[in-house]
């Protein structure tokens, strides 16, 4: 604000500055002062406009210059509402907090499932021997699960119904996060479905997540009908169209980010009210947009932009490929574990493929720790493979 003002004063000063009259001896110094002044004005202009709007040119070569209109200061930043000011300070301070040190850091594995978990035995094999480094939470939205592994007994949290694509999905994720946050030793939080399987051993997964300096939240810009096409102007003023993002819901996040999700009600309520199936004749699915958009707005460099849970959309159908027993081979698992580039395809006619290397703390590494969707019938084969293919 101060800069805008100074700049305006400057312009006015130029216009009203009297022409030099009868002091020839002071002519040169005065011109130097004016020149220095004009250069500073253009530098301040560059600062105010930022690199996007400013094209370097000098006042003196007006023809190749951007028009004066573009030199006007940008419209003032909008006035934030009370709720926005409150949300912004809370989010800023959470992000600046030093992570709480815990003597015995654990990863919270949070299962979002309609009922029983078909891969409990596989997960048990994955977890055994690492008892002090994980905790399990289960949100069963339809029926009480029957547990076959002692590790999963008494780990159900109080759950509610979940409707596909509705805000109740986000609510279930928040319920899992809140329950897992109760344990101060949980430092990283993983959301998994009943059709997810691990594709690496526990130590690999633990170190991959604990040592990463980001949360693995899928996030990309899709200008097509299933991306920005789901945006509604009701999201304004807090959420602008340019900030709208999309991503698969299967996240992993650091404790700080989990707290941030707990602290947010402002942006959450926008999605609850204005991103739902049948909204203004379009379908918007909050679980695909809330977290990607929120983190893109508040901490873009704090997220990896890909999900560590692999899923195969290459068939181009409404649902991803679901693996049958005959599909599960050593080759399939080796293929999935060796992918080190993340893909996103836009939903417009161009179907632009966005590819990015999976950079883990700046180093290219395989992207995936888990995979979906696996039919329950693949359990036996997965049990046999798990010790062979994991690193
Ligand atoms: C994720 O994408 C955002 C842009 O949306 C970028 O600023 C950020 O650096 C990316 N994260 C990583 C880890 O590359
Ligand atoms: C594994 O990857 C190779 C090379 O991309 C491909 O030809 C093959 O079909 C894949 N196999 C499976 C089972 O996905
Ligand atoms: C994560 O580490 C990489 C490599 O050191 C660095 O470039 C990046 O800025 C870090 N990101 C964060 C959010 O600390």
Automatic annotation (TrEMBL):
Keywords (A to Z) from UniProt: Glycoprotein, Glycosyltransferase, Membrane, Transferase, Transmembrane, Transmembrane helix
Keyword ATP-binding: no
Gene Ontology, cellular component aspect: membrane
Pfam families, per database record: Branch
Transmembrane parts of this sequence: 31-50
Membrane-protein topology: Single-pass type II membrane protein
Taxonomic superkingdom: Eukaryota
Subcellular location, principal: membrane
Gene Ontology MF terms in the entry: glycosyltransferase activity
InterPro entries: BC10-like (IPR044174), Glyco_trans_14 (IPR003406)
Name of the featured protein: Glycosyl transferase
Record organism: Cinnamomum micranthum f. kanehirae
């Amino acid at each position: 604000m101060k800069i805008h003002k100074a700049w305006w004063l400057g312009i006015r000063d130029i216009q009203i500055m009297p022409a030099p009259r009868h002091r020839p001896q002071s002519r040169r110094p005065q011109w130097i002062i004016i020149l220095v002044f004009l250069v500073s004005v253009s530098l301040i202009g560059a600062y105010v406009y930022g690199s996007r709007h400013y094209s370097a040119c000098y006042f003196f070569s007006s023809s190749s210059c951007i028009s004066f209109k573009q030199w006007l200061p940008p419209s003032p930043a909008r006035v934030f509402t009370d709720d926005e000011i409150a949300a912004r300070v809370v989010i800023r301070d959470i992000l600046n907090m030093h992570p709480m040190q815990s003597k015995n850091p654990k990863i919270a594995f949070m299962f979002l499932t309609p009922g029983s978990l078909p891969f409990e035995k596989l997960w048990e094999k994955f977890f055994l021997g690492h008892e002090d480094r994980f905790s399990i939470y289960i949100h069963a939205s339809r029926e009480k699960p029957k547990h076959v592994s002692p590790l999963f007994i008494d780990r159900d949290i109080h759950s509610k119904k979940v409707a596909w694509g509705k805000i109740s999905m986000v609510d279930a994720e928040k319920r899992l996060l809140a329950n897992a946050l109760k344990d101060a030793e949980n430092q990283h939080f993983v959301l998994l479905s009943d059709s997810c399987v691990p594709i690496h051993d526990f130590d690999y997964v633990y170190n991959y997540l604990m040592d990463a300096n980001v949360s693995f939240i899928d996030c990309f810009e899709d200008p097509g009908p299933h991306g920005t096409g789901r945006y509604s102007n009701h999201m304004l003023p807090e959420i602008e169209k340019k900030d709208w993002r999309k991503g698969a819901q299967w996240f992993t996040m650091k404790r700080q980010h989990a707290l941030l999700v707990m602290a947010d009600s402002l942006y959450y309520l926008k999605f609850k009210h204005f991103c739902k199936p049948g909204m203004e004749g379009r379908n918007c699915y909050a679980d695909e947009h809330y977290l990607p958009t929120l983190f893109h707005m508040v901490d873009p460099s704090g997220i990896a932009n890909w999900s560590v849970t692999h899923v195969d959309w290459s068939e181009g159908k409404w649902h991803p490929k679901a693996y049958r027993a005959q599909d599960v081979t050593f080759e399939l698992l080796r293929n999935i574990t060796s992918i080190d580039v993340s893909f996103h395809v836009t939903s417009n006619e161009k179907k632009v493929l966005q590819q990015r290397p999976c950079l883990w703390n700046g180093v290219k590494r395989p992207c995936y720790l888990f995979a979906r969707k696996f039919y329950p019938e693949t359990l036996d084969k997965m049990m046999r493979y798990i010790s062979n293919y994991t690193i």
